[in-house]
Amino acid sequence: MRIDRRLPVLFMAAISFMPIAQANKGDEFLHVQAYATAAPAAQGKVSRLLVNPFGEVDGLLLDTGTLVTFPPHMGEQLAATVKPGDTVEVKGYPEAPGQIKGYVITPSNSNQPLMVQAKPPKGIIKMPKNVRSAGLEAMNAQGEIRHLHFGKHGEINGVILADGTIVRFSREASYKFAPMLKIGQDISASGYGTKNQYGQAFEATALGPMGQTPQPVYRR
């Protein structure tokens, strides 16, 4: 049997082009420092900060249409560092078309980078999800899909409507309602979420085309 002696070289070459976070998904936060000296993955002016259904800032939208995701436990730091209208440089890697997982965000006005921290500071205990959910309010929205939000498996797990409302949903829902989850599609949704100074976002419990009664996302 002939052995191709180039294989180790070819393998190492492939690894060198593999995003660090893909090569070590379980330890991605350990590699933040590696991105500090990397080339920017995106640049642009901040159109708005993004929030999740609990009202936590978990990213931003650039004027280029690029979404940048950031850990929600660092939402307060992100909101204090970056404001709408600021020009920023983002280092990270593409999670999906038009979406960057941010590891280092640097506003041009201060040139002080904000880097991802692996977890909340010691002494801070995250509130259980069922307790956090108790404070959510019923919401509904309808309109044209302007932006798509992707999950870690590449599935569409949210949309941003023309009025700025952020609608999130489960991976299972993204498959069930896939035909209408497209930019330019008009949809109607209802669910539970939060409204604050950054906008409103909710987790959908029902989805459907605009003008029709939304269909339940979950079975009782």
Throw out a few tags for this protein.
220 residues; alpha+beta; 5-stranded mixed barrel; 6 helices; 40% strand; disordered N terminus
Could you characterize the architecture of this molecule?
The chain has 220 residues and is of the alpha+beta class. It has helices at residues 7-16, 20-23, 32-36, 75-81, 129-133, 171-176; strands at 42-51, 57-62, 67-69, 87-96, 99-107, 114-115, 137-150, 156-161, 166-168, 186-196, 199-209, 215-216. The strands form two sheets. The chain has a five-stranded mixed β-barrel with strand order 1-2-3-5-4. The longest helix has 10 residues, at 7-16.
Briefly summarize what is shown:
The protein is an alpha+beta fold and 220 residues long. 17% of the residues lie in helices and 40% in strands.
Give the oligomer, counting copies of the same chain as homo and different chains as hetero: single chain
Assign the structural class, choosing from mainly alpha, mainly beta, alpha/beta, alpha+beta, or little secondary structure. Answer: alpha+beta
Summarize the amount of helix as a percent range. 10-25%
Question: H/E order of the elements?
Answer: HHHEEEHEEEHEEEHEEE
- Estimate what percentage of residues fall within beta strands: 35-45%
Shape assignment: globular
Number of helices, counting only DSSP H or I runs of 4 residues or more: 6
Characterize the largest beta sheet: strand count, sense, and whether it forms a barrel.
5 strands, mixed, barrel
Spans of at least 5 consecutive residues with low confidence: 1-26
